[in-house]
Amino acid sequence: MLSLLEVGGSLLERVAAGGPLSLVLAASAFVLSLGYLLQLGSRHRQQQPAGPGDGKYPPYISSNIPFLGHAVTFGKSPIEFLENAYEKYGPVFSFTMVGKTFTYLLGSDAAALLFNSKNEDLNAEDVYSRLTTPVFGKGVAYDVPNPVFLEQKKMLKTGLNIAQFKQHVPVIEQETKEYFNSWGKSGERNLFEALSELVILTASHCLHGQEIRSLLNEKVAQLYADLDGGFTHAAWLLPGWLPLPSFRRRDRAHKEIKNIFYKVIQKRRKSGERVDDMLQKLLDVTYKDGHPLTDDEIAGMLIGLLLAGQHTSSTTSAWLGFFLARDKSIQEQCYVEQKAVCGEDLPPLNYDQLKDLNLLERCLKETLRLRPPIMTMMRMARSPQTVAGYTIPPGHQVCVSPTVNHRLKDSWIEGLDFKPDRYLLDNPAAGEKFAYVPFGAGRHRCIGENFAYVQIKTIWSTLLRLYEFDLVDGYFPTINYKTMIHTPSNPIIRYKKRSH
Ligand code: HEM
């Protein structure tokens, strides 16, 4: 039985690696009968009024394809799908994919429901936990009741302060210089790959500390890659008990990384040495009721901290590079800004100067508008929710898409153009609370925003000082929708060392 499942599982996984299209086809074959029943159930629910006095359900985009519903069209081009639906149905609508009903809340007003809701009503654990718990471990993040996670977020925040950022800037500058040493004077290279590798090094150094960073060799990097292999459409869509090779690699990597962290934690506890870093903060802190974090919770939080910022920051950094390579005049102004703010001879960077690099900051802000790494935030409706005159029934996955909100014609002028100076002007979106939400809002809001700005601005200050960047034969990467975070496709960039 097990081996049959394994063969089925690995076949399924191989198909899944082919992208959302083949993945959903494979997934559907696997659980078709169950899903079809679910679909019938959900259709049935769609047609039922929720009860006397309740509003009507949101417009439902029907599909003739049983179970899969709109998965294929959505998988190919989710933003286009949502924008078309917005035009046709307005800010709130529902549709089915792989047996699940999704209700999107587009635009600032509708999005307010998700951001202002209580976690008991629109629940995050129900949708995220199956993805995150095997990676971060038990006892942290979405594996615990939200009030406990909120306490954990607060603990992590104590280690993300200005005094720490001041120490981080020279560390990130040094890591960046060392990493890019191998790029030589000029060439064409995969920018996204390079920045992904660099961001693990910088984030580990800053957020885990020198001790854990020093253990980061190729073997540990592979463990992170395997762990990270847990964040896939497959892990989200398929049952966790399936014996897929990637699930097994993820689980093995989780154990091995935790063992590495346990040793460092125990060594620090025993030595009594006090270092001013995140690990120390987590060793010292207690929950409100006075009990400290266990080694396992600390290890899980360290993994979460690194991975929450890994794809988000590396993808954003890569897109920023391509926007600057496409707009050479802005790139040049950013280089001039380095000299104007830091000095003609470009001395080592420091935190105070970094704060004054306003154009670079606006470029990053604009990159996060056009390419927010988290394209959809999701919650499970546990109770009926009212929005825009509609009632969303329990069981719907309620979603907000920063990507769509960030370019809605009603909110943004020339919304598809990269215009960092738009933030200097009066912007119609400025009065809308949730028109710009790359870091989310409300109780689930990101705690890593300031660190991400420090990290990305330091990396790009260093790179702008080292190189001039160009697109390769005018190619600006298209968006790769196969990955959960929308990465640049074929992200090769041309670079040439600056002579200063
Ligand atoms: C460019 C970089 C980043 C972006 C765009 C980003 C985006 C987001 C978004 C959109 C959310 C809200 C998710 C939701 O509501 O469902 C979030 C939550 C969060 N992020 Fe980030 N993030 C980034 C970097 C980081 C970094 C560097 C860290 C850690 C140092 C981090 C830690 C977290 C944590 C702990 C949460 C809380 C999740 C919750 O309460 O449910 N993020 N992030």
UniProtKB/TrEMBL annotation:
Cellular compartments annotated: Endoplasmic reticulum membrane
E.C. no: 1.14.14.154
Organism domain of life: Eukaryota
Pathway membership, UniProt: Steroid biosynthesis; zymosterol biosynthesis; zymosterol from lanosterol: step 1/6
Required cofactor(s): heme
MF terms in GO: heme binding; iron ion binding; sterol 14-demethylase activity
PROSITE patterns, sorted: CYTOCHROME_P450 (PS00086)
Residues that coordinate or bind heme: C446
Catalysis: reaction(s): 32-oxo-24,25-dihydrolanosterol + reduced [NADPH--hemoprotein reductase] + O2 = 4,4-dimethyl-8,14-cholestadien-3beta-ol + formate + oxidized [NADPH--hemoprotein reductase] + H2O + 2 H(+); 32-hydroxylanosterol + reduced [NADPH--hemoprotein reductase] + O2 = 32-oxolanosterol + oxidized [NADPH--hemoprotein reductase] + 2 H2O + H(+); lanosterol + 3 reduced [NADPH--hemoprotein reductase] + 3 O2 = 4,4-dimethyl-5alpha-cholesta-8,14,24-trien-3beta-ol + formate + 3 oxidized [NADPH--hemoprotein reductase] + 4 H2O + 4 H(+); a 14alpha-methyl steroid + reduced [NADPH--hemoprotein reductase] + O2 = a 14alpha-hydroxymethyl steroid + oxidized [NADPH--hemoprotein reductase] + H2O + H(+)
Its membrane topology: Single-pass membrane protein
Enzyme class, broadest EC rank: oxidoreductase
GO cellular component, one term: endoplasmic reticulum membrane
Swiss-Prot/TrEMBL GO biological process terms: cholesterol biosynthetic process; negative regulation of amyloid-beta clearance; negative regulation of protein catabolic process; negative regulation of protein secretion
Entry's transmembrane regions: 20-38
Keywords from the UniProt entry: Cholesterol biosynthesis, Cholesterol metabolism, Endoplasmic reticulum, Heme, Iron, Lipid biosynthesis, Lipid metabolism, Membrane, Metal-binding, Monooxygenase, Oxidoreductase, Steroid biosynthesis, Steroid metabolism, Sterol biosynthesis, Sterol metabolism, Transmembrane, Transmembrane helix
Family: Belongs to the cytochrome P450 family.
Protein name: Lanosterol 14-alpha demethylase
Source organism of the structure: Sphenodon punctatus
